[in-house]
Amino acid sequence: MEAAHLEKLNDGQRAAVVHGIGLPDGKVGGPLLIIAGAGSGKTNTLAHRVAQLVISGADPRRILLMTFSRRAAAEMGRRVERICAKVLGDKAGVLTDALAWSGTFHGIGARLLREYAIELGLDPQFTIHDREDSADLMNLVRHDLGFSKMESRFPAKGTCLSIYSRAVNAEAPLEDVLRANYPWVSGWQKELRELFAGYVEAKQIQGVLDYDDLLLYWAQAMGDAALADEIGGKWDHVLVDEYQDTNRLQATILTGLKPAGRGLTVVGDDAQAIYSFRAAIVRNILDFPKEFSPAAEIITLDRNYRSTQSILAAANGVIGLAKERFTKNLWTDRASNQRPRLVTVRNEADQAKFVADEVLENRETGMRLKDQAVLVRASHHGGPLEVELTRRNIPFVKFGGLKFLDSAHVKDMLAALRFAQNMRDRVAGFRVLQLLPGVGPATAQGALDVVADSADPVETLDQLPCPARAQVDWPGFVELLAGLRAGSSGWPAEIGQVRAWYEPHRTASRTHPRGFRDAAGRPAATGGHRRRLSDA
Question: Which of 125, 172, 249, 260 is most buried, with most CB under 10 Å away?
Answer without folding.
Answer: 249
